Input
Amino acid sequence: MNQTERHPASAPDFMPVNELRATQLSRLQRMVGRAYDHVPLFRKRMDDRGLKPADVRSLDDARRLPFTVKADLRDTYPYGLFASPMKDIVRLHASSGTTGKPIVVAYTQDDIRVWTETIMRSLAACGLHAGDIIQNAYGYGLFTGGLGAHYGAEALGATVIPISGGNTERQLMVMKDFGVTAICCTPSYFLHLIDQSQQMGIDMKKLPLRAGVFGAEPWTEGMRQRIEAESSLKAYDIYGLSEIIGPGVAIECIHQAGLHIFEDHFLAEIIDPETLELMPDGAEGELVLTTLSKQAMPMIRYRTRDITAFATDPCPCGRTIRRMRRIGRRSDDMLIIRGINVFPSQIEAALLRVEGTLPHYQIVLTREADLDQMEVQVEVTPDVFSDEVRGLEELKKKLVHSIETVTGIRAALRLVAPHTIQRSEGKAKRVIDKRKM
Amino acid sequence: MKIHQLSVFLENKPGQLREACEVLTKARINLVTLSLADTAQFGILRLIIQDWQKAKTVLEKAGCVVKVTEVLAIEVADRPGGLAQILEIVDRAGLNIEYMYAFAEKRGDRALLVFRFTDPDAALQVLQAGGINPIRTVELFSRP
Output
């Protein structure tokens, strides 16, 4: 199939805008009614504002609805936000729970159908179709990545290899021997595969791989360039979060010019995280999402903490659903170091500017004598390893300089052995904050 | 004439050197000599090994970053001025030595030194012209 040809699954992406807005409104009204009837927390917040579901008469009225935040999911752990009885709930997923209790999310059979549809539309948007062989290296289990991608890829008619995460040598063997044409995993894990392929004598540039569907962690444009330079695939950014549905909320199309949001299922707003007011189109702010089709766990105006902006120009692909800029940072992963705001993505970009550096890094924050100290640990790779002390000192100096140029902070830099930086669920843990406030 | 040397990146923390050595022991690989360059934070372990290709493979499999470098092994008379004679030739030709270290064992009355020159090929020519013949790989590993 020609890549520019529309896949039948993508039809809703091209819906006329007025039809799309009408669909959104009728779904929003039904959703708010459902949440009001079945979720005590939501009903209380509506009542406190003197709002009834019938007050939602237009899409603009969405801004009058109360926000939902991550703490609400923790406070009502495990089942407090469910709007369906357990007999209708066919699946539970949970976040990895690195901070305290995990967050539990639920799906009815129809929710699974919607999720399958949005993943199918995501994969179709990156030019995949029946006949593709998809290696699904997202973790299967409580994490939404594995099963989410799996169902959608099968529905598309692709051949799915449910390899899950880990076991790098087997991943590479399968990728090569099975003629894999697309892979789903975190971008940092794919970089790890590239590293290891060299040792196994596999040339990633000569494989039939043509699409990588990468998500579950923020990544930079520099990382995309590196991935695409060192393998045969085009790297696509997929966005999603368990609280909303899992992966498949938004995806880049083959033009790689921002992520198309599946607006018929998810209402997107961008707000100022301080004032909570809506931002004008094109302005940067926090993404707020409302599920329009979910039954088991409707989410109203969920504050994602992800910072982005809507694209204002039309995408060459012709999709009518709106696009947002790639998410490089989250409002809550901003670090304040000696009073200066720093985002981990800035450190990543700084490291990538230095030739040959792979972005396996970690930021360790400590406080000595009341002064914040930032240490950036970078894994040494064969590309940058010099046999001479002077060469490695030179590399360190360049990295420190680059970080200082980008962030204004002079960091301590430590070169560490490969694979020493902890990776969980295939997601790279970028920041360790040991400062005691 | 040039000899292959393996360099391994080590973090400067307990156990790192042992781990690398254990990998080689398990693969029954014998070290002819080694040297360690270290700073407060990291070290570079330099190894001369007969089967360097195999050693490189097992070290990389174990997750080490390994680099192959060409060095020259030169016999030096073990008496005052032995090394000076070689350095004089090197200096006169304006060759740059990145680093050097000595083999653990002496060969009779001669010491064996490993030199890493910025330009190993140029160094080889200059030394040979000066009557100094670096040890060949075959000799290095066949000698008692």
